[in-house]
Structures are given as C-alpha cells and as structure tokens.
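ARCHIVE ENTRY
Sequence with per-residue tokens
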Amino acid sequence: MEFNKLIELDRLAKEGVTKYTSHRKLYFKLLQDKGKHFVGIIGPRGVGKTITLRQLAVNIPKSFYISMESFDGNMFDTLKKLKEKLKLETFLLDEVHSYNDFDKEIQSVYELLNIKVFFTSSTALSMSKYKNDMSRRVLLKYLYPFSFREYLEFKRKNDIPKLTFDDFINKEIDENILLLGEYFYDYIKGGLMPFALDETDVFALLDNILTTVVYKDIPRINKNITMEELNIINKLIKFIGVSSVDGINYSSIARNLGITKYKAEQYVSLLEQAFIIQVIMPEGLNVLKEPKILLSLPYRLLYQEFDFALGGLREDFFVQTCKMFGKDISYLKSTIGAKTPDYILPDSNIVLEIGGKGKGRSQFKGMKFSKKIILADSYEYNTVDKKPLFAFGLIEN
C-alpha cells in the first residue's frame, strides 16, 4: 500500500475518533499495559474494538493505526519502513483476521522490529493459535458487549451502586440497585451493543453483522468451506433463533438441518468462535452428554418477537454475563420428566434457576449444594435465595 496513503488514513482515523469522549473499561487497562509483549483484543463485531484501538492510537505517543481490512501490502515490510521513517514505537492493527499471513508475520515482527503491537480480531478461532505458538509473546484480552452495569454507566453518565458477587449471592439487593431494573428490557433488546447508543435501527445493523460473519469471516478462517455449507450455517442460526432454548444440541441441529452430527459440531464451533452462539457443557465428566446451545444477545430477536423470545433472552443474558465476568458455568441435565435447576457455578457450588415471575423452588428438591438461588424476572424477588435476574448484570467485574 502507498506509504503516503497509510499516513493519511492514520491521521483520519485519529481525527475521527475524537468525537467519542467515553471509553470502554478495557481501554484504561490497555493504556497502562507495559512490556514487550503484544496485546490481542478479541470480541464480536460491533462492540467497539475499532474505536478503542483508535482511542489508544490518539493517546499513545509515537503510535500508528492501520486497518487490516483495507491493507493490501506486506505487513512486516510496511511496519519496518514506518518504524524507520517515522521513528514509531507502537502499532495498532485492526481486524487482523483479514490479513492472510498475519500469524506467520507477527512472529517476525515480534522478534525483529522491537516495537509494541496492539491488534484486534472479530473471530476467536483465528486467535487460538497464539495461546500456544506465541503464548509468552501475545496477551489476549476479550472485549464483549456492554455488561448491564457498563450499559447504565454509558447511558446514565453517573455512578451505579457497588455490588460484589459475594454480596449478590449472600445478601438482599440494595433498593437503589432494584430501581435500575426499569432499564433491563432496553438492554436485552439491543442496548448492550455499543453502537446502539448512536443508532436507531439496531437490528438492521445486527443482521448485517450476521451476514458478514457467515459469508465473510467464516470463509477467511476456514478456507475449505463451501457456499452450500455457509447457507446451512445461516439456517442453523435461524433454527436456534426460532426454537425454545431446551433441547438445542448437536443432535437436534443435525436432525432438523439434515446434516451429520459431526458437521453440526463443526458449524457450532465456528459460530461460537465468531461470538454468535454460546455453548454450555453439562455438569460432570460424561462425554456422551451434549452441550446446551444458546444465542448471544440480542440475536434471538432477529427471529422472534420480544414477548415470545423473553424466556430464551433471559438465559442468553445469564450465560453471556457469566462469560463476561469469567465465571465457569455448566448446565444441569435432567432425566426425562424430572425438574432440575438450569445452571451450576462449579467453583462456588451454587445452582441457579432462571425464569419468570412464577418460578418456585421445586427444581431444587433433594439437591445438596452450598447455595440454591432463583433468578427471576421480577422486582418481588429480593431475598437470600430469590434474586432479580437483572441485578446479576450489575455485579462489578
């Protein structure tokens, strides 16, 4: 790519981001990051990775921003030339999964150029190799959509009352936190996506993101996949979206789409790595048990009206929040006709039932765990063992 063109694009990127005066929490952690290691920022499309990277470019001295989606040169040679000509020390490379030889060239960049690199990717699959090949050289950070707490901090521009995980589990919820429940439905209807702060038609953009992931990102990370398979993957997402949350697993996907169970597992893995679906393994070591498969928020609303989708959205929210907070989670698989709680946090030995206002404690009968908690979509639930679901998203991470 022409040298002067890159310089112009860097200038425009830095100028254009100054209108965004708020920052994701990860931005401040990255700004303080020191050391020789590179930093990879991984997360779904639309969560603010590009804005965060450009904000870093503005505030880190001797830095340079490059969008790899529009880059058509040799990365190593270009970074070397920019470093020598402009005396740069830090490079911010956006959407690196768009560059075919990134994984090969980044090792040479690390070993030979003596620079700092921050980079982003919208697919975790393309980043998985760094956990092994470059585990001591690349530190991976995840940028998710807003947690409910972060959403309120951006929307309300004021402090949210403190809430720790231990306080949420062991105490009644503060009244000032309960008042924030009025914003919960706006959040799960799309407010968790940062671009919803500026865009009125959230779902048109979500539909575009989904199309980009299926027909652009997935072929980049699996070059052997065919157009027919991509169409099946698109149908797979719709199948999950129009279905209830119970019983969605490899077998039901294979049966309904007319594919093998092996292919169902392969496609599910691709979509999980692209942050479109969520896969939750069952409790225990029985490998014959299949995972429970949910959508990431708020994709279910592309296929169902809110009132019909609410049950699934509750579980999508709970599981996604656990992942944002780094909480290990499993689902409890029941025998036919038996009632069991939905999920377990194995590290805490806590079981949780997710549901609407009418949820009771029958699912816990005969179970021995340190805590048994109902998370229900109701303000009336505020005791030691019954909590409002939305408050789970207000825990400080």
